[in-house]
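COURSE: Structural Biology Practicum
ASSIGNMENT: Worksheet 4, Part C
STUDENT ID: 0417
INSTRUCTIONS: Below are two proteins. For each, the amino acid sequence is given first, followed by its structure token string. Answer the questions at the end about the second protein only.

PROTEIN I
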Amino acid sequence: MRAALVEAFAIALADPTLEVLLTGEGPCFSNGGDLREFGTTPDVSTAWAVRLTQHPGWQLAQLADRTTVHMHGNCIGAGVEIPAFASRVIADPETTFLLPELAMGLIPGAGGCVSIPRRIGRWRTLWLVLTGTRLSSHEALSWGLIDDIVPIN
């Protein structure tokens, strides 16, 4: 999925007339990064090169002013971090938000250490990461993690 996002965002970056609408299919917007991809590169330097050159969060930060995200269902890890770069984030009333990385021995690695504090501040971001608490769409709206709640069909 990361490669597809990188490719789509590269097209949008090349054409400043394009608007970006990011949605998810199925029961949830995104369950986060694919854990099967972790540790599959042949060495550490290749892993870092992939993370630096194929980072949809960095691209989305450049596209933020012309990007809208519609979220629904469970939004976990990268499924929270990457959308937080967008200038307009809309969630269905039943949407939930979770950063479970710390429980897996990780930190938010899809840009959430930058994107989420920009929206909700450092202390709330730290609280979400340390506690692994799931936020409702109404809590996310009151904190500024999302911009609006609209039923998404």
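PROTEIN II
(use this one for the questions)
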Amino acid sequence: MCDYWVSWNGWYRLYIQGQSVQMPDTCVDMLSCGTHAPLWLMRGHPTVEDGVVTRDVCGHWMNNCCYFQSNPIKVKACPGGYYVYEFVRPSACSLAYCADARNINITSTTVMPETSTTTETTAETTLPEIFYPFGSAAGDTINAAVDDGSSSVIQLLSPFLFFGRTHQQIYVNNNGHLTFNQPSSSYVPYSFPARGSQDIIAGLWTNLDNSVRGVVSYHQYTSGNVLTRATRDINTHFPNLTFTASWVFVATWDKVSYFNLTNTETSFQVVLISGGNFSFLLMNYGDIAVTGHPVQVGYDTVNSTHYFVIPESINGSFISNLRNSSNVNVLGRWVFRVDGEPRNSILNNNVVGFRVRLSSFLDLTQNGSTELVLQQIKQELVKYGLPNNIELKLRKLQKIKP
């Protein structure tokens, strides 16, 4: 089904079996709702008091919940407890608007378990599962509630190898990033690659303000359930490795507001994991508010010999999509191997053959589509330890039939 060719005009109310339903406002599985890339509503539904609001719309494809960013639509909450939508033509074919049927009442002779929940409840139940323990209940050390502040120097209980450099200390900065040599009060992030003189891990580096709302905290572990969980996670995400975690550092920004935007809440984690000669970086994302402040998400090293920026994360208008993005097929989680083995430095001008199975309606004869596929292959290679300054070039081969 394709809604591209529909002549949309006016406001629409959604029904299934005569019952009023709404668009989903969390990610919808691709190849569902009778289409390739089903469209879902970002930022949730408004209240009656909000009046008419404009919402961004995303289409799920290739394990990216917002692979397609379709044209925004207008949404209104009505006093009768339902919503109406001013649909517009989607940005491409194979996109179609979706209706959330989970909450409709269906009369049936089959006894079904009571699993009906609202979209908001589902989000709150699912997202914390990717978060490691945090807060006072986990025994975290809490940063002072100071705008542009930082933790005091934190002596690591185990050295952390970060792309060839071993660090014995770290700072948790309130503006959403970790530094190793000195604290940072900068609320305007560097653009990666910065080619600077320090290693930086930017969970979500922007102008945050925990003096008004939210908590910034951290904890490091050398035993217990957190190490067991980290071991399981890494072996799941990197099935070709045999890994046992011996140290975990968890930094959490819980419901922190942006500067001068006190009604916003943003939650994310940066988790460092090491064991043996391996080091890993996890970034977990919960609800992320949109912002007009400059944003940087990823990591950078001295002289930018290694760096990575999560795609589309530098646009504060789309930053809320972090909770629906991933490089390991776990929504809201990005994982990287960051020890930086010496073998990575010898990969120069190697010819690599790929056999790739593509399930896409993209036209790969177009340069833009080809570059997109190459970029995704590069991200996968970087995830497994290759330097991200590698350059992928496509070599065309002609298949000759026997």
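ANSWER KEY EXCERPT:
Q1: The radius of gyration is 23 Å.
Q2: The first helix runs from residue 119 to 126.
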